Request: fold
Amino acid sequence: MRTKSFVIPAKDVIKLINRIKCMLYKPSLIIQGEELYIKDYTYPKMSKKGLELLIEEEIIYNFKHRERIIFNYINTEKKADKQNIKLFCVYSERISSITQIKKYKEILLIQLCFLQYCTKLINKRNYFFILYEGGYFYILGIVNNIIVGNETIKDIENIEGMTTLITNSLVKLSCEKNESMEVFGVNLPKDLINNTFKNTNCNYLNIEKSKVLQRVSRRNSFCII
Reply:
C-alpha cells in the first residue's frame, strides 16, 4: 500500500489547513527538525489528573507559551509517598499553528518514528541512535530502552565541521550518563561514515522512510511538517 504523504512548510498554515480538510482520514502530523526536551521530576504521590496539572504548571513556568508545547511523560519510579517521572516535551512556534487544526490524529517527531521502527532491529537496551533525515541529524541516547538525552543538528556542507558537532554531541551525552555505548546510525551519508565513524564501532542501517511511515498509521495518511 502506498503511503499518502506530503510536505508543507510549517509557516504556510493556510495551505496546511486546506490540505488536511480535503483528506478523508485524520492524518498523523509528523514534525521535522525539532529537539525533544527531557527532564526528571519528583512529585508527591497523587492522582493522574493532579499530576498532569502540576506538570502543566511546570511547563508554563519554564517555557511561558503553553500553546507552543506538546508533552508526554512516563513514571520511572513509584513509592509510598512520592513518584518519579521523566518528562518529554517539544517547544516550537509551529505547535501553536498546528493545534489550530482540529482534524488530525496525532503529532509525532520524525526521529521517534524511526526509533520505534528500529528498536526491534537493534535489539539492545543501551545505545546511541543517530538518524539523518530531511537535512537534520538526530542523536539520541537510550538507556534501559528509555530516551535519556538527545540533540538535533541541522546539516552543514562542511563535513569536518559536521563531524565535530556530532562527535561533541556523543561525548556530551556519554558524560551526562557516564556510559560508553554502541552506536547505531540510520541513513547516514557515506562521506560522514568515512570521516566520523571510520575508527568507531558503529552499526549502519538503511531504512526507507515509506516503511517507517506506513507503520505509524493504518490509514497511511501523513503530513510532514
In short: Residues 1-8 have pLDDT under 50 and may be disordered. The chain has two domains: 37-91, 110-217.
